[in-house]
Amino acid sequence: xxxxxxxxxxxxxxxxxxxxxxxxxxxxxxxxxxxxxxxxxxxxxxxxxxxxxxxxxxxxxxxxxxxxxxxxxxxxxxxxxxxxxxxxxxxxxxxxxxxxxxxxxxxxxxxxxxxxxxxxxxxxxxxxxxxxxxxxxxxxxxxxxxxxxxxxxxxxxxxxxxxxxxxxxxxx
Length: 172
Description:
Elements: E1 3-7, H1 13-28, H2 34-44, H3 47-55, E2 59-66, E3 69-77, E4 90-98, H4 107-121, E5 126-132, H5 136-144, E6 148-157, E7 160-170
Parallel strand pairs: 4-5
Antiparallel strand pairs: 1-2, 2-3, 3-4, 5-7, 6-7
């Protein structure tokens, strides 16, 4: 298995959008109403919204490739791009999305390592992420690699308020 990570840019918008919709749908559609899924997907993953995120100088996207195929991506945020005000010492991992056929191959760990590398390059002492309280596999994965719960915040799926667990890992 050959793995590489490349930075995304505006030319990657179509593929980024496709992976976003595919992975979000595959992960969460069984646990949410079709109406709430549609509402979320129609706002979070439009070309216009993703273009805006790609243009934000405090956000970065990275594709992960497995055997010459895009397997998923990482999105990280610093400063005002973070979805919670965590301060300048923090880097947020906003998204780690892996396509179904590439799950359980260790690619999530590659993306976590990339986020840690970016955080260290930017002299951040902590990384954090939000994970849905019902996503037990993800919570277990993050705990196993050193993240700990440090809080919660609300996440809206359409008109339904859901709870995300905030998990943090100290790097220094």
